[in-house]
Amino acid sequence: MKILVNVLSARRGGSRVFASHLIPALAAHDTTIDYTIVLPERPEEYFNNDLPSNVKYICPSFSNYITRFMYEHFRIPFLYKAGEYDAYFQADDTVPPLIYLFCSRTIAIFHESITLLLPRTTGDSVLKMAYWKLLKWLAIRNVNMPVAMSFCEKGELARGSSRLFKKLQVVYHGIDSGKFHPNPVNDAGHLSIVLPDSFIVSVSTRNPHKNYFRIVQAYGLLLKQDKIKEHLVLIGSPVLEREEVRIRQFVRDAKIENFVHIYNNIDNSELPAIYRRANAYVYGSLFDSFGFTPLEAMACGIPCAISQFSALPEICGDAAEYFDPLSIQSMADAIQVVLNNNDRRSFLISTGLLHARKFTWEKSAAEYHYLLTSPQLPEWSL
Q1: Residue 102 CB: number of other CB atoms within 10 A?
Q2: What is the Cα–Cα distance from 346 to 340, expressed in whole angstroms?
Q3: Which of 87, 104, 173, 288 is deepest in the core (most CB within 10 A)?
Q4: Is the dihedral of CA 329, 331, 332, 336 positive or negative?
């Protein structure tokens, strides 16, 4: 069996973590399947380890957006046809529409349904968002197996359509247990950022829906009431300039600059050491289809205060202290619990370690292998 895998759009964030971990696990799961991967960069820069022998790669270079557009929408479909592949695997949901003419078995992964539901929260232009929304709309209706990362996202994508609900599959992501664990064996090394001695941490892109503004408000409230001694560390890439201004302006106005530390992109290899040095993890997202970072923090033995919205309770189970992300007071109360309630803190740490072990890339690979090779496509019943 031969499968063409397109990961050109999986260049950063959750989609990159997904593709760079799933593909090696999928190829190792069944070495009789040959994979050809279309990559956005050289494999040594994209994958943590060497690829199995049944994986080949194509790494095109683009001089501008037009050549990239032409390659993705025209070259890839004809690559599929010329190579006589048996299945097409899109590592996100931006499937080139021509592929539907050539391929009878297609899989697309929906990483963020928010771009369909609330497109302006991502910070892109109106034209670009219209383009992405069209591709996603076509993908969910035309691929054989659209895959959601959670049952919450499945319901959001189906939006009352019984046909889409039956077709949508759910496959949970994994986390890298070799990297995210509570044993600080390599934590003595140099970090690119300077961390305070005692801190709570949150890791995500600073999109408005990630709710960082309310996190700093809740933290400011706790400081004002003299209920917290830990600093606040926020790590992630900025998205909207007005959101950055809003967050940093509040920090200045509240006079908490010495306690709030905001860092942009750092190397993902540093995250385990940062998690393990933290006293707690806080995640206030208003919308999440999965949520890698809470599971990563749990796997490192850190108690988590998590938003009760969207897919997060489904993914985090009973291993988190939940709060209403629209309520500053609710968030502040949850942070206090995970820091100061020793019994609850111990429970969250032990439960989180066990819960995070349920999410492995090997398990995800086995489920994707089934979707790719099953003679009959699975269908959910209502």
Answers
A1: 15
A2: 11
A3: 288
A4: positive
- Residue 4 CA to residue 87 CA, distance in Å, equals 7
pLDDT band at 188 (very low <50, low <70, confident <90, very high): low
CA distance 160 to 156: 8
Residue among 112, 87, 2, 89 nearest 38 (CA): 89
Rounded CA separation 183/165 (Å)? 41
What angle do helix axes 342-356 and 328-340 make, rounded to 10 degrees? 90
Sheet holding 280-283, edge to edge: 260-263, 231-235, 199-203, 280-283, 304-307, 321-323
Q: Which two tokens stand for residue 98?
A: 């021509």
Structure pTM? 0.90
C-beta of residue 145 within 8 angstroms of C-beta of residue 106: yes
Give me the amino acid identity at 21.
Answer: H
What CA–CA distance (Å, rounded) separates 173 from 360?
7
SS3 call for 87? strand
Average pLDDT over residues 299-327: 97
Segment holding 56, helix H or strand E: strand 55-58
Directed axis angle between helix 361-373 and helix 13-29, to 10°? 70
Q: Which of 113, 161, 107, 137 is nearest to 382 (CA)?
A: 161
As a residue count, the chain comes to 382
